[in-house]
Amino acid sequence: MSALSALPFLKPVHLQPPRSSPGGQRRHTLPASEFRCLSPGDAVSVFEIEREAFISVSGDCPLHLDEIRHFLNLCPELSLGWFEEGRLVAFIIGSLWDQERLSQAALTLHKPQGTAVHIHVLAVHRTFRQQGKGSILMWRYLQYLRCLPFARRALLMCEDFLVPFYQKCGFEALGPCQVTVGGLAFVEMQHPVRGHAFMRRNSGC
Questions:
Q1: Is residue 146 part of a domain?
Q2: Max Cα-Cα span within the chain
Q3: Is 2 contained in some domain?
Q4: Which of 15, 25, 69, 97 could form a disulfide with 116 if both were Cys (CB 3.0 to 4.6 A apart)?
Q5: Using alpha carbons only, what angle is made at residue 59 by residues 53 and 64, rounded to the nearest 5 degrees?
Q6: What is the chain's alpha carbon radius of gyration, rounded to the nearest angstrom?
Q7: pLDDT in tens, 94-131
Q8: Positions marked active-site
Q9: What are the start-end ranges of the E strands in the chain?
């Protein structure tokens, strides 16, 4: 059984009826809405969305193109993309971390033995903002993490103005983050992740 078939909330969601040709023959169409883990082939689309979302606000991106490729090669299973008719509209990229709190090294390292999922970036394409897609994607991502046997908690760092958004997603603030980027300061936030056995009993994972 593939990972996708085992995780019902990653299956394609058909929001529109399938299109038919004039003769009544069903045409093959892409799913109206689909969630899946990203691959290195998605890196350019990811970077284009991220660059537009962050450079206008902070002047830099959490991950540059080579870093996106780095994580999508090392741990693609810790990413999630939202596609509409084959087009990437929002994404999350994560990696594993093996310490209680994030440090500067967490920006570039993936620790395969870690139990904390470091969420590096969540971004939504400008055309699809203010539609609640960021919250929906985060909910799906956290549900997905609960089916991974090694994941115990999710960590992220954000600027002060984003704290209320992540609190609504269920994260709690841990205090100032040790990490600084270009003089910017961040708040570190955490979300507990239940283990694999719980989800297998309760959601068919």
A1: yes
A2: 63
A3: no
A4: 97
A5: 70
A6: 18
A7: 999 999 999 999 999 999 999 999 999 999 999 988 89
A8: 95, 109, 120, 122, 166
A9: 34-36, 79-84, 87-97, 116-124, 153-158, 172-176, 187-192
